[in-house]
Amino acid sequence: MEIPVPDIGNRSYERILKVIQVKEVVGPGQVTKFVAPRHRYSDPINAPGQLLDVGQLQQRDLREIRTQHEFEYPDFIARTILKSPQFDYDEARVFQFHRKTSNSQFVYGTVITDSSLNLIDYCIGGPRLEQRRTVLHPLLRALCTPGSLEVRLH
Known about the structure:
Layout: E1 2-4, H1 11-17, E2 19-21, E3 25-26, E4 30-35, E5 42-43, E6 47-51, H2 56-67, H3 74-83, E7 92-100, E8 105-113, E9 119-123, H4 129-143, H5 146-152
Antiparallel strand pairs: 1-2, 3-4, 4-7, 5-6, 7-8, 8-9
């Protein structure tokens, strides 16, 4: 699924992002990773026919987030997913919106939703906080369900 990028007032980033991908992706404007629920016991692609222990697949996915260096805030992601009972039986979706430069990347923010795109939490950090917020909030409104935004977005 793809969601059109709303007018965020940052034309250069809109040209990079183009659409919000609601699938696992690593791109110049977005990285998205799905994290298995704690109570998923099988992985038909990587371990067909094998039953796994509670939390094993979720831990594998969180380990990938920590080691692949694509995500700016891996500790925030792990804490949010591990403390939320929502992710006992539901898949977490982690979105990072960023712009890569020649020698680094500028992260607008990291967003965690459930599989229905209800906003669970988000993180904005670093210098130029208002610029990051100005870009991330319209993306949140486009990506997440309206009811979930009322609680988290002011």
